[in-house]
Amino acid sequence: MIRAAPFLLAVAAFVVACGGDGVPGEAATDVAAATSEVIRGPVTLRVRFEPKEARLSDEPTLTISASAPEDIEVELPPFGDNVGSFLVRGYSTPLPDVAGGVRTTRQIYRLEPTVAGKQTLTGVSIRFRQGENANWRTIEADPVHVVVRTLHGDEVPRLAALKPAAGPVALPEPPSEPVWPWIAGMVALFVLAGAWLLHRLRRRGDHAPIELTPQQRAEREFAALLRDDPLARGELQTFYVELTGIVRRYIERTVGLRAPERTTDEFLRDMRGHPAFPQDRQERLRAFLESADLVKFAAMSPAPDEIDAAVARAKAFVGIGIAPAPVGDAAGVVE
After folding, report:
1. How many angstroms separate the CA atoms of 157 and 234, rounded?
2. In DSSP terms, which residues pair with 16 in a beta bridge?
3. What are phi and psi of 64, to 5 degrees?
4. How far apart, in Å, do the first and last CA atoms of the chain sit?
5. Peptide bond connecting 278 to the previous residue in cis, omega within 30 degrees of 0
6. Is residue 141 within 8 Å of residue 47, measured between CB atoms?
7. Considering only CA atoms, which of 158, 123, 147 is closest in space to residue 55?
8. C-alpha dist (Å) from residue 133 to 73, 102, 125, 308
9. Alpha helices of the chain — where are they, by DSSP H?
10. In this structure, what are the phi and psi dihedrals at residue 47, rounded to the nearest 5 degrees?
């Protein structure tokens, strides 16, 4: 899998806005999101990160957009597996919007925070040129400081907030009435509570959830992907990210390789010598992942029948399991 460009090492809360031809300006006001806008000549770079004060439990959204006349070529940053300390859980590139001779292209990331506290983030940059023989020009934003909060925010216990020790408490007076009725009532209450708890435990046992196998979990993920149908929204890269993610998670659940967090090259290197991956299976899996990378990162647009074939082969790979026994051509290879 292609690694993220240097700008993706930090575009999470994002940049201080700039104005004019690369000259710093005033940031736009937005109570819900952190935004920035940089203008150089006819090109405008906008960055939006929301919510602007993210917590570890949030899934913030990062949107990078570039607007320029249609005769200007704009190069947005390449896709990566992470954005600084944020993991990328979803990625899409909607179709460009064209209005009044100006074309706007966007990249949308769905992120997962992994580290709380203050972080120093570098800027995000794009390139553009007018004509194939023209020199590339760069728009780059300044680095900013980002804060990711924990579930409890800044409410940390402090010694100064402790109250002093309480004074002595007087013992209650001995009861003047017989206590056996109270004892009998407590015994009856405990018996009823025990009977109710036993009944609940029995009912829970009758409806205990069934543990799914890795193959069953993969089948559910396939069904969810096809039901969500990102292809109908024109999100081809998102579809292939999720498709390869299902196969990678299946491998992790069956043989223990940390497939989801590895690039394609790193995963294939870890796979060498593993007893669950003989040479022929390694070649099939390599062809499947590298073919999907061409769609995700090289903007290749497969035909509908090629997309259907990729889904069928991914399902076949999951269906046969991962075992050292040799298999036929139904190994999930994207030709």
Report:
1. 49
2. 142
3. -115, 125
4. 17
5. no
6. yes
7. 147
8. 11, 21, 21, 39
9. 180-206, 214-228, 236-255, 264-271, 279-297, 304-319
10. -130, 135
Q: Which residues does residue 109 pair with via DSSP β-bridges, in sequence order? A: 62, 91
Output 307-313 pairs: Cβ under 8 A, ≥24 positions apart. Answer: 307/231, 307/239, 309/334, 309/335, 310/240, 310/243, 310/334, 311/222, 311/226, 311/243, 313/288
Residues 24 and 144: beta-carbon distance below 8 Å: no
Query: What is the Cα–Cα distance from 266 to 271, expressed in whole angstroms?
Result: 9
Return the structure tokens found at 282. 């390694």
d(CA 96, CA 109): 16
Residue 60's identity, in one-letter code, is P
pTM: 0.39
Please state, in angstroms and rounded to a whole number, the distance separating the CA atoms of residues 37 and 163: 50
Kindly give the residue spans of alpha helices, DSSP state H, lying in 170-258.
180-206, 214-228, 236-255
- Angle, to 10 degrees, between the axis of helix 214-228 and the axis of helix 304-319? 160
Q: Running DSSP on this structure, what letter comes out for residue 234?
A: T
Q: In this structure, what DSSP letter does residue 329 have?
A: S
| Maximum Cα interatomic distance, the chain, rounded to a whole number of Å | 104
Task: Please choose, from the candidates 292, 248, 291, 293, the residue with its C-alpha nearest in 3D space to the C-alpha of residue 271.
Answer: 248
Structure confidence by residue, pLDDT tens digits, 241-297 = 888 888 888 888 887 777 666 777 777 777 777 777 777 777 777 777 787 888 888
CA angle 116, 119, 121 (to 5 degrees): 135
The model's pLDDT over 198-251, given as tens digits with 9 standing for 90+, comes to: 888 877 765 556 788 888 888 888 888 888 888 888 888 888 888 888 888 888
**DSSP conformational letter for 310:** H
